[in-house]
Amino acid sequence: MLKPTGIYMLDTIMRGGFPAGSLVYFIGDPDSMAEIFLYQFTSSRRTYYITTARRHEYIMANIAAVGCIKSVDDIVFIDVYSKYNLNGSHTNASDADIMEWVEHELEGIKEVEGETEFNIIVDTFSFFLELNVDPYRLKKLVSQLYDLVKGCGGLGYLYVLNESHDKKIENAIMNVADVIFKVEIERIGHRMSNRFAITKVRGMAPIPEFIKFKIGPQGIEIDTSRDIA
To answer: Fewer CB within 10 Å: N-end or C-end of the chain?
Structure first.
């Protein structure tokens, strides 16, 4: 069964969306505005949004700006950034403390939602890749996220900054992921354009080419000049 992502043209290209329960390893160039995809993914169903880079109020404002909020109850933030004062303020929490708190929050989601369908977005998962914790602990977190998404039949997204992490660890996580989604900026002379590719989709054919997109007033505008029939 395919689950819509919340981006109409992307779902059209994928002939309905991604397979239910897919964990998506979402790689983006920092200057590509890849987070707009994340904002629109929240429109497909109830979403638990784990934020590590900015306060959740700012992200909610950005999501609202592209018209993705149907109800304030549709998005539940797990605000790691504010919880641990990641803006540079003093905190006594260790990296292990942060991992423990997030693991506890994920267990809470499972208890509250049961098998109800929902999304999980981690913005960014790069934060966890840089924590000073045992690699086994990191793999355990990925496994917890994977099982949670599989159990509810929704979609999960791990947003990772491109070319920023140890390849050995990244490859191990990418191997677990059901979908690999890459967003980048193509530079030709003085011109630049945003594009994406979906190089892996477990259970169905991936997209074998890059597809251009723009950021418009209502978010992602995918180039429809290609044949998607």
So the answer is: C
- Cβ distance 183 to 171 under 8 Å? no
CATH architecture of 19-222: 3-Layer(aba) Sandwich (3.40)
Question: Which among 25, 27, 5 has a CA at the least distance from the CA of 16?
Answer: 5
Q: Are 32 and 185 in contact (CB under 8 A)?
A: yes
CB 155 within 8 A of CB 3: yes
Q: Along the chain (229 residues), what's the average pLDDT of each consecutive run of 10 residues?
A: 95 95 96 93 95 94 86 89 69 84 95 90 95 92 97 97 86 96 86 92 90 89 66
Distance of alpha carbon 26 from alpha carbon 159, whole angstroms:
5
CA-CA distance, 87 to 41, in Å (whole number)? 26
Buried b / exposed e along 91-101 (16+ C-beta atoms within 10 A): eeeeeeebbee
* Length of the chain, in residues: 229
Residue found by looking up tokens 């929902």 in the block: 118
